[in-house]
Structures are given as C-alpha cells and as structure tokens.
Amino acid sequence: MQYRLTAPASLHASVQLPASKSISNRALILHALSGGATRPENLSDCDDTQVMIRALDHMPDVIDIHAAGTAMRFLTAYLCVTPGTHVITGTERMQQRPIRILVDALRTLGARIEYAGNEGFPPLRITGTRLTGSEIELAGNVSSQYISALLMIGAVLPAGLKLQLTGDIVSRPYINLTLQLMHDFGAQAGWTSESSIAVTPGGYRDTPFRVESDWSAASYWYQMTALTSGNAEVELPGLRVHSPQGDSRGAELFARLGVQTEFTPQGVKLRKEGQPAERLDEDLVDIPDLAQTFVVTCCLLGVPFRFTGLQSLKIKETDRICALITELRKLGYTVHAEQDSILWWDGERCPADPQPAIDTYEDHRMAMAFAPACLVRPDIRINEPQVVSKSYPRYWDDLRAAGFGITTSPESR
Ligand SMILES: O=C(O)C1=C[C@@H](OP(=O)(O)O)[C@@H](O)[C@H](O)C1
Ligand SMILES: C=C(OP(=O)(O)O)C(=O)O
C-alpha cells in the first residue's frame, strides 16, 4: 500500500496520543512478577504492547512477539524465572537483532536458554528455573533493553542483583525509566556508581498503575508544528511535564527549532514561535528514537546538523542510518554518516525525485518522521504506511483529523 499526502495551510489540532509503549511493556512485566490482580490501566493499543499482553495472558509454547524489541528482551528474562519451557521468536528482522549479551548474562545467573536458530539471535528456547547468581558484568553500549530486562527480574531473585556495565552506556534514560517503575511497584533498586546498579531482593507488590502518553509519539507533532509555514497550535493532552520518559527532552531541542511548549494541567500546548537555530549539534545517545524526527526536520528547515551518539540505530527496526540517508536523497538532501554513529548535514543538496515515494523498511518511525515532510514538499508518498501500528496505530487518523489529505495510491512504488 502507498499513501499520498497533502498538508493543511495551517495546523490547529488537539491530539490524544497513544500511551507510552515503553511504560506499558515495563508495567506489564512488573505486574506479572508481582502476581497481583490489579492490571495496569491505559495500556498502549500498539502492536508492541498487544504482543506482550497476549504472551503474558496465554503463555503459549511458542511466543511470537513480532517486531517488538522490548517484548523480546523483557520476556526473555521473564521466561528464565517462570516455570515451563517456551520458544520465543519474532519477525525476520527480530531474528537479526542481537541478543547474545542478554543471553550470556542470564546464563551467568544460571538460566537455561538455547538458541533455536542462529547463535546470538532469536528465536530462543527457554526453560524457567531458579536463578542463583546475583552479580554480572555486561556491555552497556549496545542496547539498554538488556539491562532493563535483567533489572526487572533482579528484584525476584533470591539474592537480588548487582550489575556492572562496561563501555559507554546507551539509552540511559530507559534504564532510569525501568528503575522508576520498579520503585513504583515497590522494589528497591538504584545506581551505586556511574556504571553499576544494585537491586534489593524482595519482589514487587500489586499496585494500581496508569500509563501516561507517549513522548516519542509527541515528537511528530512537534515536527509538524516546526514545519508548518502558516500558524500552528497543537494541544497534546496527557503528556506530563516531569515525565520519566527520556524523550520528553525533545521539547527542549524543538525550542531551538522554533517550537515553544506550554505545560498546562491537561498536558502540553505547542506553538510555532521564533526562528530556528542556525545549526544544531547534539549528542542523541539518550534519545535514539528521536533521531529520525530531528534529522528529517533539520533538513526540511534547512538547519545544518551534526548528531552523535547514534550507534544503536543500526540494530533497530531497520538500519536507520542507511534508511535515513537513502530516503532523504529522494527529497534532495545529501546526509553523511561517520563511524556508524554520527549523521551530519552541511546543507548539501542533490536532485530530488519528482514524486518522492518514501520506503519505510518495516520501521514505524520512518513513516511517522517522513510524513510531516508534506508540509514543505507537496506530493510526498509513503510506502507501507501501516507500519505505524508498532507504536502509534491511530497516527494517520490523527493526521486526517488535523486536516491532512491522505489518499491511497494504487501503485506501491
Ligand atoms: O527500553 C525501552 O523501552 C526502549 C529502549 C531503547 O532501545 P535501546 O536501549 O536498544 O537503544 C529505545 O530505542 C526503544 O524504542 C525502547
Ligand atoms: C527501537 C524501537 O523499538 P524496539 O527496539 O523496542 O523494537 C522504537 O520504537 O523505535
């Protein structure tokens, strides 16, 4: 399928964003480990959370988590402490996303895990057992999801857990989000140094919990506000000012691109105000999911940039470094990569496709970050637009309600 997009002349919208998938998927694991009856409220309706709910509710012999990185990593640890034998698998891409660091760490604790396909990658065959280990060292520079997965089971291990992280830690706010939720569910855990974390044994308590709106999803509305040439005012109820979500930092970066955030009792209000900065140089290691939003926005605003800390982008839903460079070329922007962890643009242009059709590579964020480009460049097409359901199933409905024209083109390319 392919969508053809047209933009409204000005942007006035109030959008109920999806609930955070990162918080939903943590709350579901912690709820399951608490053994309680009070299910978390306002869980996301996105694919990544739905696969988690199905797995935990039914615990089939073969658990298919499709494309959900959090579900793969969090359930792998969860199954190690849960009675029974299960195979956990996912999409073809998921079977290329590395998991050895987590498997090695769990095996050190005493877990029974075998690779059911290729060494180092899902699918995995896991038999739950009593884990007696309590201290491990693991790399912190590949994916924070391995660390979050270990921390969450740490509180139900007989001796708790001590983690020593090596290398430069990526996605640290997601580790802090895990610690915050563990605390909300009654556990004690925290940093003991810049690179070590301790979890006290004692388990979780049954806790009423409500999931807040998703700051990563909010970034596309910031982007639309920044790119509108007319007036723009967007309300996003349900976002919290002091959010534990690291991606709330997007608000501060967008202020430098001419979008002001007003925090209200209901959520936030965005307004286009002031001029974008002359250039943007930023380390995005704490907010990798916003990389696509900022790279596309800066190109379309004509703001040169250098974004570092992108080393985790190659192992996400697609190789996001390659995907960004390839698709921005179709819009006439020549973006460069360095050392697989930096993207930079000095304003260089190339001939654009006359009717650019953006490929999405089974990556929701490629579709969501490129759609706002229609505000600057009419006649953008998005291939396989349904990918957005991974984190934001109503994305296109929300765009329609905000005045965007979305028609289905018969051709797929
Ligand atoms: O823990 C989480 O909820 C997430 C952690 C991040 O992954 P990495 O730690 O692999 O960078 C992020 O990209 C992902 O969308 C969600
Ligand atoms: C990287 C992402 O998800 P995950 O790693 O959980 O599949 C994302 O949502 O951008």
From TrEMBL:
User: Where does the signal sequence lie?
Assistant: none
Which Gene3D superfamilies does the record match to this protein?
Enolpyruvate transferase domain
- What residues make up the catalytic site? 289 (proton acceptor)
> At which positions is 3-phosphoshikimate bound?
21-22, 26, 143-145, 171, 289, 316
UniProt-listed InterPro entries: Enolpyruvate_Tfrase_dom (IPR001986), Enolpyruvate_Tfrase_sf (IPR036968), EPSP_synthase (IPR006264), EPSP_synthase_CS (IPR023193), RNA3'P_cycl/enolpyr_Trfase_a/b (IPR013792)
Pathway(s) served: Metabolic intermediate biosynthesis; chorismate biosynthesis; chorismate from D-erythrose 4-phosphate and phosphoenolpyruvate: step 6/7
The UniProt family comment states: Belongs to the EPSP synthase family.
Q: What is this protein called?
A: 3-phosphoshikimate 1-carboxyvinyltransferase
Species source reads Mediterranea massiliensis
Q: What is the lineage of its organism?
A: Bacteria, Pseudomonadati, Bacteroidota, Bacteroidia, Bacteroidales
